[in-house]
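To whoever is on call:

I kicked off a structure prediction for a single chain this morning and the downstream step that reads the tokens threw a length-mismatch warning. I double-checked the sequence; it's 425 residues and nothing unusual in it as far as I can see. Pasting both halves so you can look.
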Amino acid sequence: MSRSLVAGLAAAAAALTTLAAPASAAPPKPRITSDVTLPAPALADFEQGLVEDDRGVKLGGVGSGLYPAGRRGEYWMVTDRGPNGEPKIDGEKRRTFPVPEFAPAIVRVAVRHGKAEIVRTITIKQADGTPITGLSNQETHDEVPYTWDGGTQLGYDPNGLDTEDIVTDGEGGFWLVDEYGPSLVHVAGNGRILARYVPKGLGLSGAGYPVKETLPAVLAKRQQNRGFEALGVSKSERALYLSVQSPLANPDKKAGKASGTARILRVDLRTGKATGEWAYTMENVATFDPKAEQGDMKISALNVLAPGRLLLEERTDAVARLYTVDLTKATNLLGGPHDDPATSPSLESSPPATVKVAPKKLAVDLAAIPGLPGKIEGVTVLDPTTIAIANDNDFGLGTFGEDGRLIDSGVPSRIMTIKLARPLR
């Protein structure tokens, strides 16, 4: 065969290869396959007989947690503590509860034919069936609760929960996480609290359900409003994985705000006792979301892909990304010096070189997907190439008029299904 013929065949082959896979072809991207808005009834209608004056507030906050409900297109979701604000009164930020009698609730949502419907509501209750509230638990440990206008202080409630993420327990009940304690909460299928697991030494008394001090004491140093917000279940390990929303205020608030070191915990399903604890380094906000501050970085969702391997969400209110995390290659801190609040320097202030932090890798850049809402808190894996997400719309809280009625923000609660470009591993 002549050299010219060989050269011609090679050129033709190269041309065909170029046509089949052009160098300029863009890599596949995640795409939205479903986007629905949740119903938003008035709170007085949603919790009839419990809420009398809802001040114009509608149901929201249900995107705090998201978990498959067994049937395709159905999800369990959970509200947070209820509508709350933080106006500045006389130069001081105050935590307000416009509807203090609101009881955090679990809802089952069905998504069919492009619409979402609430098909079941479970009010969270004390052991005797009395609905709980979302009010602060303890003086000095929690934020002082105020009325809607920040003018009058409300009483503390040891039963109150600031509920966040949710998974099912396989027996008709649920596991939730809470920001106050912070705590892990086991709830029966009828909404009655079976047990609340809190840090050792918390000293929470007066609750109408069992409170068990099984978690590391250092977790009580969570920043205000930054307790547990992410929860996942490993059925093969009979364990739960949970994470603090932000670095602990350890030794103080200033250290927590500046820190990028968060903690992930593993808890035994049968005993509620911790069986593992790992350090996790959050992204530098300067590159993650330059318009925010380091203290705005949060961990809001967690899924278990395999024993010791997680899918974890980091976010600000505007930007969200998902990372795969390998705990098997990190130092187990449980029971060591970093569980003692007196250890100096603290893990949050200066992670020692002897501590191997859990390695991570970017899996899904949610911020790069057009049309996603802000403040994504609910993330659940449906299959290796499909996830569902939900946002927390903060009950539509904007401002209140002089008549004490809400001027709604107009931000809806949404559930979105996303097809990924590549499988999660």
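Update from on-call: the warning came from a stale cache, not from the record. Cleared it. Sanity check on the structure: Residues 28 and 421 are 5 Å apart (CA to CA).
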